[in-house]
Known about the structure:
The chain is mainly α. The chain has helices spanning about 1-10, 15-25, 30-45, 50-60, 65-80, 80-95, 100-110, 115-130, 135-145, 150-165, 170-180, 185-195, 200-210, 220-235, 240-250, 255-270, 275-285, 290-300, 315, 320-330, 440-445, 455-470, 475-515.
Amino acid sequence: MLQRSEELKKRGQIEQTLKILNSLVTYNTSTEKIYLARAEVYRQKNQLSLALADLTRVIEAGTTNVQAYTLRSEVYRTLNQPKKALADLSEALALEPENVQILGKRGTLYRSLNKFAYALKDYNQAIELEAESAWLYGNRAETYRALNEHRKALNDYTRTLKLNPAATWVYERRSYSNLWLGYINAAQADFRRSWELQPRNITAGWMAEWTGMYKKDFVFSAEVGKRLENIAGTEPEHPVAYLCRAVALLGRGDFSGSYKLCDIACKLAPDEPGSYFWKALAATGLKEDKEAFELLQTALDLNLRPVFLPPPAWAGQINPAFYDKLAQHLFHKPVVRLLESRTARPVELEPRADLQPQPLELTDLSLQEPGTSTPTGPEKARPKLALVKMPDREPEAEQAAQTLQPGETAPETSEASGPTPAPAAESAPEPEPLQKVKTTPEAAALSPARPSPTRRMAQAVPRAEAATKPAQPAPQEAEKEGSAVLFNFFKVFIGLVSILLVCLFFYFLFVVLPSFI
Length: 517
């Protein structure tokens, strides 16, 4: 009968399965397998209190069955009682210390409680026992990303894709770690891949366009505006859709229309820093510099990624003078500090073959899929950021797109060719850049070339730093000051000697001399 119930459950006939199990409990109340099977059926039917009662009955009977503890931990987690779920998983591990599934589940539970050190310990132990498990690397990557250890997260994300190409959620998650490390090309490639695999993921499509705007050869063309409109059309009322339409208007010079759409995006998603960033750029076009700076400050407070802080070159042409002021203000204002980037050594990583199209056969992971959870912990703490000096030449994307083999150290690397680039969009006639000023050869010879706003922001920092240093006295002035100090010392010394001589004279005149007389 028990075997018959298992067959019915596999076919999805839950009600008939439950009837058989109830009859078995009536005639044989001492079999823990029956209670475990019925508890699983109750859990599938979302009758959690009944499932909890059966599992507790089995555990209180003194069972050593690991399944009873793991099932009850799942019920507790569904009931939002993570501490009880954690206790049950620990009891199960006491019975089977090398159970990889339970180690991974407990690591995921620790991560949901923001106990990242304990989560990493469980994941590391599980990976030592089963080094080819994609879901373990995926969960550990999520933990590293929550800790802002993006280089380690990058390696684990890539390892996850290598072991399980069907884990399409990894592309979008890995792209954010690429952004934090400053790897624009790799980030855009991942966003594009995620957009291709999940066309309804409007965020991935938008981020692919946004990151592409930071390439040196980018020009805001009519084709870019059309792509942004198409992305917005997938879900017109989504906050990102308003943002896409706003940026399309901004590229065409419609600052007022762009500002209004960005304002709607900010109201729909008040915790999204990108909405405030682009609203600030629209405000600069309207010459509202004070409001633009306040909006950028809000974006920084909401954890805007440092690589996005300088505007794209085409957007910087809207109001170049504003960005010079911004760079100096960010440098001087103590409340806005530089994000302390970790100076980790470059990592020698494997070639990134996973950017090529892979056969997609979706498989259900045994543990909670990391892509379905929202990262918590330090990454959501919204640290204060400030101006990050962008290099003249961005690092190659290959460093961000590959991974270490187990047991290898991280050797120094040199720049190499980047990953396979994503297919380029169809070329279209590109309009002239915004506010392009035509100059005659005579005027060009008299006036030096004006650097881009991004370069001026980077150059403003050393200029402001030099301005804040105290002025050093000239060598001749320092020599004069030293001579004056020495002269004053001798004056004081001579004065003291004179006073002493006067005292001795009166002592001799009124004390010593009368004694002889």
